[in-house]
Amino acid sequence: MSTRDITIAGFVAVVASLVVLEVLARRKQSPIPRLGEWLGFVMRPRAGRALILLGWLWLGWHYFARLTARSPGRPAG
Length: 77
Hints:
The protein is mainly alpha-helical. Helix content is 71%, strand content 0%. It has two domains: 1-32; 34-70, no CATH class. The protein has helices at 3-25, 35-42, 46-69. It is flat, with a radius of gyration of 17 Å. The protein starts with a helix and ends in an 8-residue tail after the last helix.
């Protein structure tokens, strides 16, 4: 198993955990906040908004910019 496979598995586990937490949060009288409530809480201060923006920039750079930067003749991986 390559490090790429481990990284992808890690991100799949994080996304699956977020989905499970969101499903649990939508139950009646759940103490777990929904994703929208959590993001609202994080984005109240200016520093929180800056952190969310930096997270989106990081995500975009690592996933979307790298996909378009590959040459057609170069194999992926």
